Amino acid sequence: MKFQQAMARRRFLTETTQGFGYAALASLLGAGSTLHAAAPSQGERLDRGQGGLPSLPHFIPKAKQVIYFHMVGGPSQIDMYDYKPVMNDWFDKDLPESIRNGQRLTTMTSGQSRFPIAPSRYKFQQHGECGMWVSELLPYTARAVDDMCFIRSMHTEAINHEPAITFMQSGNQITGRPCIGSWLSYGLGSMNENLPTFVVLVAEPSNTEQVQAISARLWASGYLPGQHAGVSFRSKGDPILYINNPPGVSSEIRRQTLDGINNLNRLAHARLGDPETQTRIEQYEMAFRMQASVPELTDLGQESEATWALYGEAAKQPGTFANTALMSRRLVERGVRFVQVYHNNWDTHGNTAGRLPDQCRDVDQPCWGLIQDLKQRGMLDSTLVIWGGEFGRTIYSQGQLTRENYGRDHHPRCFTMWMAGGGIKPGTIYGETDEFSYNIVRDPVHVRDFHATILHTLGIDHERFTYKAQGLDQRLTGVEPAKVIHELLA
Length: 490
Fold this sequence. Notes:
alpha/beta, Alkaline Phosphatase, subunit A, nine-stranded mixed β-sheet, two-stranded antiparallel ribbon, 13 helices, 19 strands, globular
């Protein structure tokens, strides 16, 4: 009773700050002293996790780290990866009701009197030994298809951005659940001492015609302990606010101040026993260590000309997708477990011809460059790279339709994602949609199956990886059926 009374106000203040400045310092809190701080030498392995569950991994993992590129808004699979040449004969004809089959629509097109077919205006070619069809918008990606695994049969129940992104990131359309990065931080722990376990980067698209809101709820720890929330690095200026010492404050003074604060927190912890007080002590220590590690991390001047050639000139500009792709490699190279990158403006309700080329140009070479870079450094086999959005786009046009331009509404019934590295079978093309890219006709992959497969590459059985919350054994994959797609695995 004494503990509950004493902690009422403290707990309220602590929990409400987690959504603001507290989350900025929330990170992995490994206890090991032998962890890596700076970039390891080429080929050096970062295998040992610190601070994770002793029962994990359940079996030998293929992947140790993850880089997840999320395209916010829903990329158009029809214009990029799902080649449907028959649709050229259907231009401006109505989508058959037998294909739509009563599917619910968003409010953006629910009032349209007709749903005219809009074939892709972009040319496609087959590439690599696997023969994957890739749009002319992605010439660099086309060169890497034999290193990649394409899922053309992803599907979800969510039809609007907010629940769809939340579902893709946390396994549930309702906010407040832990995201994938938080689950891995909790389960597998840290691979470094001086950087967070889970880092978030938000890239700035070159075209900003229609961006979606991105908030910290997407990288929140939910009901998991707060230290497993993602740490968002800013794209410009100081990567993390207030991590540097104020003018006139030396590192020695900062150390003395921190020691004094920590001593007070230890007294409070000894008296009240609140585990969050111990977490705060460790977070302050992490922030102090990051003062030395972050400047080294963000100093791209040490990269070679060969590296810049891989990612492109845009990588030299802070905040670009190319810059975040290069930063992602530097983060996993230094032992960060999970890197989440968001790239906005994929919500092409209109002006597809004006916007989609910019979007593809932003990500095409950097994604190819990252895969090549990881291969050259011997890191691709242990790093899982993921690319995709929250849903796909419709074959029918939203708004005005011409041969040269059109819009596309949200489409949850089928969309395309790809993966590379980390236990994934390269050169794989999985799943098939009908000739309208509207319904899946072979090998469907639900979001829950996708999550189960990701966890499997990291040595985790999704059915045995749980956390007790609200009286339930909670899982990333939830309580509905989910299965590992073994055909995707090497």
